[in-house]
Amino acid sequence: MGFDDMRRFCEIQDLKMPVFGSAATMDGLRNTFRYAFDEPQPWKNYLRLAPEVIDGPFRLGETEIIPIDLPHGKFTTTGYVFVRGGRKLLAYFTDCAEVPPEAVEAARGVDVLVLDALRERPHPTHMTVSQAIEAADMISPGVSYFTHLCHDISHAGLEAALPASRRVAYDGLNVTAGASR
After folding, report:
1. What is the distance between the alpha carbons of residues 17 and 79, in angstroms, rounded to a whole number?
2. Burial level of 100, CB count in 10 A (0-12/13-18/19+)?
């Protein structure tokens, strides 16, 4: 689940790792990774968290972060729209079965859109590639990156079939907001 991979950040500077999420998300993390929330910490330089429960837009420095509820089967996940100086820089909508109208409106015109696009066949908790393309068309970003693709998709084949403003995300990808407009 990747959570323990954050330990190294706490070891380097003996810091607490800020973690932002809804109350339900924090409860789930606390139940799964109780040791990271327990005080005092039983091990020196192990993962320690500074949990921040969010229930609406919040700021990190000059960036406003707008949480967006996204359907994920029987559950709700959270997507985020990052805004600085009134400009929508990034919308991150992964692990979702659809992008509801409120999310489309919140992200409309964003520089960079990251979308769930699992496969072509329907799935109860993830968007298909076709649904992701449709959502990107409604949001009208500068560029879209499709992620969460499964083994059913040929990354090279999909990339070749997409227009220039739609791309397949990959590990190590660096994205610069505003570069596409």
Report:
1. 20
2. middle
Q: What domains can you pick out in the chain, each with its CATH number? A: 1-54 (no CATH), 56-181 (3.60.15.10)
* CA–CA separation, 68 and 103 (whole Å): 6
Amino acid identity for residue 1 in this structure: M
Distance CA 122, CA 159 (A): 20
pLDDT digits (tens, 9 = 90+) for 103-129: 999 999 999 999 999 999 999 999 999
For residues 24-45, average pLDDT: 80
CB 26 within 8 A of CB 54: no
d(CA 148, CA 168): 10
CA distance 161 to 38: 49
Please state, in angstroms and rounded to a whole number, the distance separating the CA atoms of residues 150 and 62: 35
Selection from 167, 154, 98 nearest residue 127 by Cα: 98
